[in-house]
Design brief:
mainly alpha, single chain
């Protein structure tokens, strides 16, 4: 019985916390993907982009996505077809 009560106390209290945890998980995945993309595809400015992404929350990864990743994906898709 004590184990069930412990699990219940760990669960979020209401739907807003569930929504917040979901947003944080999506942001963490997006942040990790942008850092990995900068590491793999930016040989000259790798550390600059990684520091920018990591130390400026929310704005850094979004800026990297629109400035570097998205244009590169468009160019890659043109060469594949």
């Amino acid at each position: 019985m004590l184990r069930i009560l412990t699990i219940i106390t760990i669960l979020p209290a209401d739907i807003s916390e569930i929504f917040l945890y979901g947003i944080l998980i999506v942001y963490a995945i997006f942040l990790w993907r942008m850092i990995l993309d900068a590491w793999n595809n930016e040989p000259t400015s790798r550390w600059g982009w990684i520091l920018f992404i990591f130390y400026i929350p929310f704005i850094g990864p979004i800026t990297y996505y629109f400035a570097k990743k998205r244009p590169r994906d468009r160019i890659d898709s043109k060469f594949k077809s």
